[in-house]
């Protein structure tokens, strides 16, 4: 089976900003999976770009993340957020970064997602409150 085509531009300014925030988290790494950048700390906590569940709509500048369980319902009511294809059934949500310039909020979403999958030793290295981007 041929590899997935690359579906992002390494010089994309939104990806560069997202990468800066995600890779500042303890032990975070980046790799390409299914043609898109994914951020991991053991397990995947974020992906850049993806489709919308139930449609063929691509959001190449979206952040896919695992929402904090206590905030998921509120995020689902916010029109900026959508359920991503493939990862949506596992509780993930997404927000298109091209429509939102609130990088403090993006940093908080990444922090919450990271805290749900990272090992305890990595979480222990985080400040108690997420840093502002």
UniProtKB/TrEMBL annotation:
Any single Pfam family the record assigns to this protein = YjbR
InterPro entries cross-referenced by the UniProt entry: YjbR-like_sf (IPR038056), YjbR/MT2646/Rv2570-like (IPR058532)
Q: Which domain of life is it from?
A: Bacteria
Q: Which Gene3D superfamilies did the record assign? A: 3.90.1150.30
User: Does the record bear DNA-binding in its keywords?
Assistant: yes
TM spans, by residue? Answer: none
Q: Does the keyword DNA-binding apply?
A: yes
Task: Please give one Gene Ontology molecular function term for this protein.
Answer: DNA binding
Alphabetically list the UniProt keywords: DNA-binding
Q: What is this protein called?
A: MmcQ/YjbR family DNA-binding protein
């Amino acid at each position: 089976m041929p590899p997935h085509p690359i579906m992002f531009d390494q010089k994309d300014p939104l990806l560069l900003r997202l990468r800066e925030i995600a890779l500042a988290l303890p032990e975070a790494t980046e790799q390409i999976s299914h043609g898109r950048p994914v951020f991991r700390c053991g397990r995947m906590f974020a992906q850049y770009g993806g489709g919308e569940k139930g449609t063929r709509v691509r959001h190449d500048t979206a952040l896919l993340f695992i929402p904090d369980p206590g905030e998921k319902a509120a995020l689902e009511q916010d029109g900026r957020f959508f359920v991503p294809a493939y990862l949506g059934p596992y509780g993930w949500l997404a927000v298109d970064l091209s429509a939102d310039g609130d990088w403090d909020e993006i940093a908080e979403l990444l922090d919450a997602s990271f805290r749900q999958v990272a090992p305890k030793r990595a979480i222990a290295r985080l400040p108690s409150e997420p840093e502002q981007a």
